[in-house]
Amino acid sequence: MKATHCFILNLFLAIIWIILNREAGVFQFLLGFGMGFFILFIFQRPLSTAAYVKRIKGFVKFIFVFIFLFISSNVNVAKVIIFYPKKDIVPSFISYPVDDLSHYESLLISQFITLTPGSVSVKLDESELIIHRLNVEDIDQVIANLDKLKYLILGFIR
Fold it and tell me: 61-116 pLDDT, tens per residue?
């Protein structure tokens, strides 16, 4: 079964939950969606929903890790602004290779990089993404975080 069909089935199960519960609301919809996902998770083999389950699990993992990266970026930017003297701040441009990604995947990673405080996507080519960072202490750590973000995005895209 295609992932879009699985998603529609999951929405249908959520709507059935709302109808049976006789109470419409965001919490009831999310509860019904979660229960529908659990049903699709349990019956992966007979319903052929393994790809959908993998994508949803990847998306949930991405959301939690991105929230952690977002909060840690906020803390780092606040730390740099409050405690670092101006002469100790090292802004720089970083070139990140994206030649193994499709245009949509490159665009998505560039947008999520821009959402994190202290970093801005400056230019997106077919082979590289130019990023400006407020403060770069360890370039290898920055590249490792970008790789983590890339593989998390690919976890629910592919």
Answer: 999 999 998 999 899 899 999 998 988 888 999 999 999 999 999 999 999 999 98
Which among 73, 112, 81 is positioned nearest to 96, based on CA atoms?
A: 112
Q: What share of the chain is helix, strand, coil (3-state, %, to 5)?
A: 70, 10, 20
Over 32-87, what HEC string results?
HHHHHHHHHHHCHHHHCCHHHHHHHHHHHHHHHHHHHHHHHHHHHHHHHHHHCCHH
pTM of the predicted model over 0.85? no
Query: What are the residue boundaries of the structural domains of the chain, listed by start?
Result: 3-48, 52-157
Q: Contact, 96 vs 131, CB < 8 A?
A: yes
